[in-house]
Write a structure and sequence with these properties.
The chain has 15 helices and 13 strands. By secondary structure, it is α/β, with parallel strands linked by helices. The chain has a seven-stranded parallel β-sheet with strand order 4-3-2-5-1-6-7. It has a six-stranded parallel β-sheet with strand order 10-9-8-11-12-13, sandwiched between helices. Belongs to the UDP-glycosyltransferase family.
Length: 478
Amino acid sequence: MVSGIDRKITRETFTFVPTMTSCTILFHLVCCILMGLMTSSKPLSILLLQSLPSTSHHIWATNLVKGLLREGHQVHAVSTLKTKVEGKLAQNLTYAVFEGLMNSSDKYEDYGPAQWEKYNAFHMAYVTYQWAIYGCDRVIKTNAAKELLEMIKTVKFDVIVQDVTLHQCLYGLWKPLHEIEKDSINIVLINSYCAFEPGIPLPPNALETGGLHVQVVQPIVGDVVVTYSEDVRIFLDGAKTGVIVISLGTNLKWKTVELNKIKSIVLALSKLKQRVLWKLDAKAKVPFKIPDNVMTVKWIPQREVLSHKNVKAFWAQGGLLSTQEAIWEGIPMIITPFFMDQKSNAEILVAKGVGIRLDFKILSTQSVLHAIEEIFYNKSYTKNMKRLSSEFRDRPLPPLDLAIWSIEHAARQPNGSLTTPLRSQSWVEQNLIDVYAFLVFTVFNLLIILLSVFFALKLLINFCYNRIVSKLSKSKQS
């Protein structure tokens, strides 16, 4: 076994694992870990792949890795960023990085709210698609991908966990796509939960694990606990009238924001009685004096900060992970959405009465003040969010426990009852060809019947008409 997170994976690392039929678990999107309720009889050898150049996806995957390590499993993670696991948990972890992949979006570095506002939903969908394809092209050219290709020739993994959001990059490492979808996908982990998002019908092997990354757990002996710095703690502890946290995501670069917008925000924050913890990226330059009640930081452990007792509101972009963190902690939100799912998340939050939407294009000192004061002093937002938080947490199994159980279950029962029914279905059944054929046949027969009735009625009407005309002609002649 290779110990530590900074050592390179070797082919012998996983040779102690019993040879089993490999199965694949796929999760859609994404920090503490809870002990799973069920464990495998032997530690599993697990390969986790996260190839989408997204910080949020990496965070989600990292927390799943930590959960698996807590159960004693051996994990080899290949991701877009360094898998930061320290202390005792790192003993069973090896990792590699798709080098340079996070730079694949450098050409969008100077894009900001002004540019995003110009694009409609179709253009954003196109840009997102192109970004995913470009990222996949970069992935397969990395040294990590080449090493992985060699590794799988000799190393047998019990379970493969792969993020397939936006693309199925690296699918070809295992087998042809149609064979994977039919024979190898055991369980799909989805970063959603019906308490927040509209419920949808799902097959038994599609499991909702939304909130996996925010589940609070008891740290194990020797575990390194992530927390905020001492100066942030002092700032939060001293906020007697409450704190609002501002974090508009990793995609927003404050250097792209117009100075008049930043000035409006600074002026509005200076008028508040509450304290403000404002996350500004490292390249942001604010040419205005920061008010005494405002603390700016380059990065914050967001979930840990939101769990502080004095945090009363959260101003965010409406990304799914940030939204789930706020819901979990019961913190009402101000949402400034920019693109993709952020706008739909904002609509859901507003409809549930747990947040206020503040669009960037109408942002001003007055609008910022109104939104913050409304969220602080109208207690209905906090009340509704606390109720939503209770519902979001109330599940048969916490999300991380469910994810870990599903991975262990896939290894124990590779052909169990949770596997997709597509495995036993023909191509005709998989694509509902028989259903469509029946519908076409039914519609065709219905048309024939309707046409037959139409022509029969037409003949009957013509017959009656001719009889009437004939009788009228005879009566005139007589």
